[in-house]
Design a protein that fits this description.
The protein has about 260 residues and is α/β, with parallel strands linked by helices. The protein is built from ten helices and ten strands. InterPro entries: 4pyrrol_syn_uPrphyn_synt_sf, 4pyrrol_synth_uPrphyn_synth, UROS/Hem4.
């Protein structure tokens, strides 16, 4: 059962620079929206990591497959690429994890391999690794655009297939400095909470404990994947549920379904 959002209060936790579209969609559906970002994206701007990015971007024409794991990876990666490559080289194939990332890639002028004219409904790491173009990759160069750290499933699997894999780590993920304090001052009890990544979830849980707002564990939580929803349940969110993907339309559908189950 899906319910209308009119009169429902939704707490969103996306980084401030990424929350506008999601917030506008919820408001258009009639919801009252509160935003407390639980993730900050900090671009790499100094040190050895910066020099590594420059080298990888300069050598981008030697890349066979370029994989982008997030919208932030697309935004920052293409900022770099457009600085060094006013016209993108013809060699690389482009891939995206998630429908929203695929859309961001297409908006920057790169056709998404395996997605046809539009993004696949769901493209997680496992689905990407099943693509025919990534099966026989021995001696091919694969560049994975991402933040520092994160899952290694894609890189490990492609290396096992014989590929030469590098990570182009463009940003750090951090807990915003005042997130716990803002949550402590947040007097409302939302009807639902949305998180868009596992790291956002971890930060939210940390801030709930630090702020003493443990009643938020009883609120329906909408997650972008089954993996993150399972993680949420293990951390205390009994009413965690999964969207088909992290795209706004899929998250809205999952939110309506989650609220329908508790009404």
């Amino acid at each position: 059962m899906r319910v209308e959002l009119r009169g429902k209060r939704i707490l969103i936790t996306r980084p401030a620079h990424q929350s506008r579209g999601w917030c506008d969609l919820l408001c258009a559906a009639g919801a009252e929206v509160d935003s407390i970002p639980m993730l900050a994206i900090e671009p790499i701007d100094s040190g050895p990591q910066l020099q590594a990015i420059k080298r990888q971007i300069l050598d981008f024409d030697q890349t066979d497959h370029a994989i982008f794991v997030s919208q932030n990876a697309v935004r920052l990666g293409f900022d770099w690429l457009e600085d060094f490559w006013p016209q993108l080289p013809l060699g690389p194939r482009y891939y995206a994890i998630g429908a929203a990332t695929a859309l961001a890639l297409q908006k920057r002028g790169a056709a998404c391999a395996g997605g046809g004219d539009g993004a696949p409904d769901t493209m997680d790491s496992e689905a990407l690794l099943a693509l025919p173009t990534l099966q026989n990759v021995a001696d091919q160069r694969i560049l994975i655009f991402r933040g520092s750290g994160g899952r290694t499933l894609i890189g490990d699997t492609l290396r096992a297939r014989g590929a030469r894999v590098e990570y182009c780590e463009l940003y750090r993920r951090a807990l915003p400095a005042h997130a716990a304090g803002r949550l402590a001052q947040y007097a409302a009890r939302p009807d639902a909470i949305s998180v868009h990544s596992g790291e956002t979830l971890d930060n939210l849980v940390q801030c709930i404990h630090r702020s003493g707002r443990v009643a938020l564990f009883e609120v329906p939580l909408v997650c972008p994947s089954q993996r993150v929803a399972a993680q949420a349940r293990s951390l205390g969110f009994d009413l965690a549920s999964a969207a088909r993907n992290a795209g706004d339309a899929a998250m809205l559908e999952a939110l309506q379904a989650a609220l329908g189950r508790v009404d």
